[in-house]
Amino acid sequence: MATVKATGIKPETTPIEIRDRRNQAPPGYSQPSKSDVSVIQYDSALESIIGSKPTHALLLSSAEGTGNAFFHRGCVYNPSRNELWTTSAPLAATDPSRPPTILMSKVTITASPRGDTLTAEWAKLRPPPVMPMPANGCLAANGILWCSQGTMHPGTGGVFHMPAGQPPKAVATTYYGRDFNSPHSAAVSGDGVWFTDPCCGHELDFRSPPQLPPSVYWYDQTAREVRAMADGFVRPTGIAVDEALSTLYVADAGGVKADGSLDLVQPRSIYAFDIVKRGDAIFLANKRLFALARRGSPIHLMCENGNVWAACGDGIEIWNNGGSLMGLIKVAGGVQSFCRGPDNTMFLCADQRLWRLQFSTTQRNASPELL
């Protein structure tokens, strides 16, 4: 497909509002920001994360064109190739008798010599045939680990490793012969991979009926074994492991209906588990509610410096390791996925819009992504 090039993109100063957790009113009766991107700070410690003068830039938008949500999931930055990858929401086929499809986007961002403007080159690609309907991914060993939601055909879907410039290779595609439902997100940890498996594909009519309960799985690379590690979820989506590899966080977006509306009494929460060893085997123990999303449901998670970042209906919510909301990066329309970029930047997928944030601090220690 053709490449689109956007030039002369100018970053803007991101407004910061300091608020009180108790009454949700800004001190001094200040008016809420009218910017599409702003920061709401509940804890002064947030400044050590984002700095006092962050900026944001709108890299690409389909809002004024097709209106398609090309920047929905994925959001994986490969530093070795300076490539940002995203995946679209399911796109309806022109022929109503055909199933929807998902497109992948490869975006390259460069700064001008003076650093005052940005250029974004955007190429839309069809996913490899063996990896249909990709959702989220994460960095892994000279490439990206993708979750493929599959189609109506048996034997499709699973977790795939796609080395840079090479076709994807299957990592886990079934649980003892039963197809996964719709693998959504993965997190690499030591010698294995954690991943979530909700039933999103069937709910959106592009995947056959579920054969397994919505669960969290662990793929042990050494034993080449897939183990079911936790169930009892409505719609497990985001997943992340802390830097110490001792705590696993899982988002349950059970409150999101198939049409995108919210059921406020269903789970919209982040749960924490202890990663423990019993003999030579890994287990998850001590499940506990870590946080309830401020707005919407948590979809995508990241751990960094002990804090948990969550893509939610209001943007990116940032929680400390004690489960207190430090603040949020407020984005109009919410955020579906995000990732760290180079030089203390962050990329945000907001369906029709792709944003780049520049933080004015250097503190960073993201959870490892190795395979």
UniProtKB/TrEMBL annotation:
It comes from the Eukaryota. InterPro entries: 6-blade_b-propeller_TolB-like, Oryzine_lactonohydrolase. This is SMP-30/Gluconolactonase/LRE-like region domain-containing protein.
